[in-house]
Structure formats: structure tokens, C-alpha cells
């Protein structure tokens, strides 16, 4: 665990908090809005780690371009480095806890 894991969790929480507050004030809160508001923050970091894993696999295989096989192979979190997995799991956990809190308080 390092500083970026916590920073990514905070960034994901801010994104989810902003979207959840906007949904709450515009049209009320429901479980679906809580889940939908968590997705952008979580998938932002999923995409980031997927791109890094694709680059790592491309270099490991000695290719000049990323092909579709590498793209599919990089979707698996066990291919990522340990720090990359933590950079994804921390925002996921933060979004889950924040969503559970929003649901408990407002629904």
C-alpha cells in the first residue's frame, strides 16, 4: 500500500459524492442512482490499470503495437502488478462504503 492507493480512493469518493449529491438534489436518491454514481470513479481507475497492463504485456512480448489478444489479456486483474490491483481495489472499496452510507442515510 502506498500514497497513490489512498489518493485514488479519495478521487473516486469525490467523483461519486459529487454525482450522488447532484442526483439527490435533482431527482431524489434511489439505490440505482447510488450504483450509477459509483461507476465512473471505479471504472476510471479500471481503465487506467488496464492501459498500464496492456503496455506492460506489449513490452514483455516484444511487440510494437497492442493487438486485441493483449487487450483481452490485460482485462484480468491477476495480470496487473500488485500496486495496480491496489490502485483499483481501494477506489472500489471506497465507493462501496460511500454508497452504503448514502443508502443508509438517505434511502
Characterize the biggest β-sheet: none
Given helix and strand content, the structural type is mainly alpha
* Helix share, percent: over 70%
Write the element-wise H/E pattern from the N-terminal end onward.
HHHH
Overall shape: elongated
Number of strands: 0
Name the beta content range.
Answer: under 5%
Ranges where pLDDT stays below 50 over 5 or more residues in a row are none
What is the gist of this entry?
This protein has helices spanning 3-27, 31-61, 68-73, 82-106. With 107 residues, the protein is mainly α. It has one domain.
Walk me through what this model shows.
The protein has 107 residues and is an all-alpha fold. The protein has one domain (3-106). Helices cover 81% and strands 0% of the residues. It has helices at 3-27, 31-61, 68-73, 82-106. Helix 1 (3-27) runs parallel beside helix 4. It is elongated, with a radius of gyration of 16 Å.
Amino acid at each position: 500500500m502506498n500514497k497513490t492507493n489512498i489518493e485514488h480512493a479519495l478521487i473516486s469518493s469525490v467523483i461519486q459524492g459529487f454525482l450522488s449529491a447532484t442526483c439527490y438534489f435533482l431527482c431524489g436518491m434511489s439505490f440505482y442512482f447510488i450504483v450509477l454514481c459509483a461507476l465512473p470513479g471505479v471504472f476510471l481507475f479500471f481503465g487506467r490499470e488496464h492501459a498500464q497492463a496492456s503496455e506492460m504485456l506489449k513490452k514483455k512480448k516484444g511487440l510494437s503495437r497492442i493487438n486485441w489478444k493483449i487487450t483481452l489479456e490485460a482485462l484480468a486483474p491477476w495480470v496487473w502488478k500488485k500496486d495496480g490491483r491496489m490502485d483499483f481495489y481501494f477506489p472500489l472499496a471506497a465507493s462501496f462504503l460511500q454508497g452504503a452510507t448514502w443508502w443508509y442515510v438517505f434511502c
